[in-house]
Design brief:
mainly alpha; 11 helices; disordered C terminus
């Protein structure tokens, strides 16, 4: 029996196995198709006339908000569930190689990386292309969006990983979280909404870059914790 690998050694191997598993599974194909929809719609919208007659910067930020909503609320939980091949790998390849299962923390770490790998590039590339198409000429804004995107992904993926630890149906539980906590709760408890949903925090941070965007439409903002977390000041 071979010795059990450390977390640092098993993580890259598990990451490669997860990626290989997804390229050979129909779930991987479905995930890629779903991932392409927000990117396609957002890019296509950049070429449409601006119906609200708002400035290009405001229209650009509206599109980014829409992109965030689709990714963070609906696609990340689906991605997390579609890549939940832990049991198959644990009982198959890994067991065959080492003749012993690895700790669950190793698989959770690999799932975190593979979900980040599938989610983050699409958002960053779309943000960059939209930024160039609209010729925003505000490099600080682009860097700030990168930071918001990265930390938003880290937060929501962590939430769905935690959901997956406690629930056997991570996709269903994740979507319920997204719907009831991020959408319904903020609607029913409007006066306290700015203290609860994470997605509205992201919207509020983005809204700060254009005063012509209604904070009521996007989110209420100004919470010191999130300002510090996203390195955007008070």
């Amino acid at each position: 029996m071979k010795p059990k690998l450390s977390f640092a050694h098993s993580l890259p191997l598990l990451f490669r196995l997860f990626r290989k598993e997804q390229t050979q599974s129909w779930k991987g194909l479905v995930a890629w198709i779903l991932l392409g929809f927000p990117v396609f719609v957002t890019l296509l919208a950049q070429f449409n006339p601006n119906p609200s007659k708002i400035p290009p910067k405001g229209w650009f930020l509206f599109m980014i908000n829409n992109l965030f909503f689709q990714y963070f609320l609906w696609l990340i939980p689906f991605l997390y569930a579609s890549e939940a091949v832990i049991e198959e790998i644990r009982k198959g390849t890994i067991h065959f190689i080492w003749h012993t299962p690895l700790p669950k923390s190793h698989f959770l770490g690999a799932k975190f990386l593979i979900t980040l790998w599938w989610t983050l590039p699409g958002i960053l590339i779309t943000e960059t292309l939209c930024f160039l198409i609209w010729r925003i000429q505000d490099f600080y804004l682009l860097l700030a969006l990168y930071g918001i995107t990265l930390l938003g992904c880290l937060y929501f993926i962590s939430v769905f990983l935690a959901i997956g630890v406690f629930f056997k149906k991570p996709m269903a539980a994740g979507i319920l979280y997204g719907f009831f906590v991020e959408v319904v709760l903020s609607t029913l408890v409007d006066s306290e909404a700015h203290k609860l949903p994470a997605l509205h925090k992201l919207y509020g941070l983005i809204a700060r870059f254009d005063p012509k965007i209604s904070a009521k439409e996007l989110a209420k903002y100004g919470d010191p914790f999130w300002n510090i977390l996203f390195l955007l000041g008070g």
